Amino acid sequence: MKPLFSLVFCVLLLATSDAYSSSRAVRKVDDLYRENCQSCHGAGFFKDNEVRWMHGGSADEIARSIAEGHPERGMPAFGESLSAVEIQGLVVFLREKEKQARKSASPPARSDRSGIVPSRHAAFRIETVVEAGLEMPWALAFLPDGRRLVTERPGRVRVFDACWKTSTEPVQGTPPVLAKGQGGLLDVAVWTGGKEPWIYLALSDPAEDDSGKSMTKIARGKIRDNKWANEEVIFQAPLAFYSGSGVHFGSRMVFDEDLLYFIVGERGDQMAVQDPQRPQGKIYRMRADGSIPPGNPFENDARAMPGLWSLGHRNPQGLALDPRDRSLYATEHGPRGGDEFNRILPGANYGWPLVSFGMDYSGKPFTAFTEKEGMESPLHHWTPSIAACGLACMSGDAFAEWNGDFLAGGLRGELHRLRVRDGKVVESETLLSGFGRIRDVRCGPDGLVYLVLNDPGRIVRLVPAASDAPN
Ligand code: HEC
Questions:
Q1: Is the beta carbon of 54 within 6 A of some atom in ligand 1?
Q2: Which helix (H) or strand (E) holds 95?
Q3: Is-contact 291 306, C-beta < 8 A?
Q4: Measured between alpha carbons, how far is 90 from 69 in angstroms, rounded to an integer?
Q5: Ligand 1: which of 27, 29, 36, 40 to mutate, most ligand atoms within 8 Å of CB?
Q6: 97 and 174: one domain?
Q7: CA distance readout (Å), 469 to 115, 125, 346, 402
Q8: What is this structure's pTM?
Q9: In ligand 1, which atom is closest to the CA atom of 57?
Q10: Is the CB–ligand 1 distance for residue 74 below 6 Å?
């Protein structure tokens, strides 16, 4: 069934032009709102910033209010004059207004004078561990001997000791990267299954023909005397898939014993995402040495990408394994609205670009579908977007109250806690907001939460409020 997807996509585009639209006839939501809604609802939609949905605040309920109206109460129906795509765009627009209203009504929780941030299950303090000297740090990983590795997007790996001291020189000889747009040196992960740890890097690999194109690549090596050694390529796409696009590389990596999961983003090529034969917009599972383990979902499809595990992804930049049942979760950047938290199941299709809770950045909606038969819906989504980046599953004693919870970061400066039970999010909480650009979130071997921040590049950690002063 899988090779049919791109064909099905094209047919859908033609057949249901009301539900999908890339045509110029679609108007921007700002204009739609100003022309159709503002006269009654005002520019902000919510009066006095008070958020109250009288007819339901879910995406479906808001869409129904707009399409069917509430004629008996003076709200006209727009199902005839606006397309389903435009209505979905207005849903995203109203969600943005909702967030603005909530923000103005009650500014986010801040630490008090003592520096303590309250939250539902655990109060914490924030300590800075690396104050300066990092340019666009992207990822953090812990070595078994207590050292820490930090990647910087322009192409450097830095080694820190257990007290967060580093030498002035980054690791010499790491693979070249094309640091253009969103590309560069991305994730770092450590595999301790061998005698000496292997270090895995996810990066945007410059095409060898010097065409200025690049593609997500996974390489591993060892660090000896601050030098990169024994490099091996774990994943590299054929040159034909390298592209001049500077967006959506992914990537994150996670180990489940000797199995490696990693992400390749959609690279701005939406049509490739639904095609198992093309590398973009996919999550993969391989052995630590890059060989393909038995039991992968597409193993009987000789033309599918080797190692393919799931498809239909846009640009996931958070990946975490729940150590309790070893299930995999990812967070993914939506467009304008519709950032997702997904449980990643083998062979599953996550729907991009056929289903989405978001719209185009320009304000032009493109799909009316937020769900579809045969496609996985997110366990949780954020509209407006938090620019989801970095995901950790909590374990250890330091924050025992959060054990098994997922912490999801966002470049919009938010840190969210999600509790999953029986495949559903049963609790969600904003732990931090307005905090700076959160690029990576890790649960350290000490059970503390580490955040990698950009602009400026810093590393901070969350420690329980009751614990002693920093060491
Ligand atoms: C002629 C005035 C008028 C216009 C134009 C209008 N609305 Fe409404 N709308 C109302 C009224 C009045 C209500 C409240 C109904 C009630 O009190 O139950 C309402 C309710 C709603 C609700 C439900 C809110 C809730 O609390 O559940 C939504 C959503 C909504 N409007 C969206 C829109 C959008 C989007 C547009 C433009 C496409 C629009 N409206 C245009 C008058 C209008």
A1: yes
A2: helix 84-105
A3: no
A4: 14
A5: 40
A6: no
A7: 12, 10, 44, 21
A8: 0.86
A9: 27
A10: yes
The total domain count for the chain is 2
Q: Do 181 and 124 share a structural domain?
A: yes
- φ/ψ region of 368 (left if φ > 0, alpha if ψ in -120 to 50, else beta) reads alpha
Residues 307 and 398 in one domain: yes
For residue 402, the domain's CATH number is 2.120.10.30
Verify that 228 and 299 share a domain, yes or no. Answer: yes
pLDDT in tens, 385-421: 999 999 999 999 999 999 999 999 999 999 999 999 9
For residue 211, give the amino acid letter: S
Cα of 193 to ligand 1 centre, how many Å?
Answer: 59
Range of the domain at 267: 116-334+385-464
Q: Judge whether 375 lies within some domain.
A: no
Among 86, 105, 124, which residue terminates a domain?
A: 105
Work out the percent of the chain whose per-residue pLDDT is above 90: 83
Please give the average per-residue pLDDT across 112-131, as a whole number: 90
**Vertex 418 angle, CA 412 and 419, to 5°:** 175
The string of pLDDT tens digits covering residues 243-261 is 999 999 999 999 999 999 9
Catalytic, 333? Answer no
Among 248, 313, 333, 416, the one annotated catalytic = 248
